[in-house]
From TrEMBL:
<protein>
    <submittedName>
        <fullName>Uncharacterized protein</fullName>
    </submittedName>
</protein>
Length: 203
């Protein structure tokens, strides 16, 4: 029979114990004890804001983008406004048109809002967009060529919205009986908007 020396045998037992502890799984009691020690040294804290928002989304709770923006908007809007000035001016004019232009079919409304996006007066009056709108309306109403082109685009937009063939009014001619937007109608609506704009402008 082969016998290990006492010192070698003790070294063998130590090595075996290390290997066993490395590959063995901790018991449930050991895991619970480790968890208790972790809780004792780690103060209780709620989840961070971003994680809390994610948990709410994952909890099958009805969620809307507007609600998320409302919650995060305080941090998002701190400091200097991130929206470029031209976009802010255009948004202000779009809101004014939405509130004050009476246009049930909607074609005049859409064309005017598209028209102002590329007008040079916007860049000249970034801090006073209503002044820019007043100049834009005057440029449409006072120039026959510009007005005729504007009226043509309005009727084209109407045909697109309602899947109809647009009928156009020729300059100096009476409107076609099926013209959705005769020149006089467009002119009157722009004048009404112009009057409303002048009433809103500071004195």
């Amino acid at each position: 029979m082969f016998y290990l020396p006492t010192v070698a045998y003790q070294q063998f037992l130590q090595c075996f114990a290390k290997l066993r502890s490395r590959f063995s799984q901790p018991s449930a009691a050991e895991v619970a004890e480790a968890g208790d020690r972790q809780m004792a040294v780690t103060p209780a804290a709620g989840p961070p804001p971003d994680l809390a928002l994610q948990q709410e989304i994952l909890a099958n709770r009805p969620f809307s983008l507007a609600e998320a923006i409302g919650r995060e908007g305080g941090d998002f809007l701190k400091g200097e406004c991130l929206v470029p000035r031209p976009l802010r001016a255009i948004a202000r004019l779009n809101l004014f048109i939405d509130q004050h232009l009476c246009d049930q079919p909607g074609a005049l409304h859409r064309v005017l809002q598209t028209w102002i996006k590329t007008d040079v007066h916007i860049s000249q009056h970034l801090d006073t967009p209503l002044v820019a709108l007043e100049k834009i309306l005057a440029s449409i109403l006072d120039n026959p060529y510009v007005f005729n082109e504007f009226a043509r685009q309005v009727n084209v937009q109407w045909g697109t919205l309602y899947d109809e063939i647009p009928r156009f009014q020729q300059p100096g001619q009476p409107p076609h009986p099926e013209t959705a937007y005769p020149h006089q109608l467009i002119r009157q609506k722009l004048i009404d908007l112009q009057t409303r704009l002048q009433a809103e402008s500071p004195t």
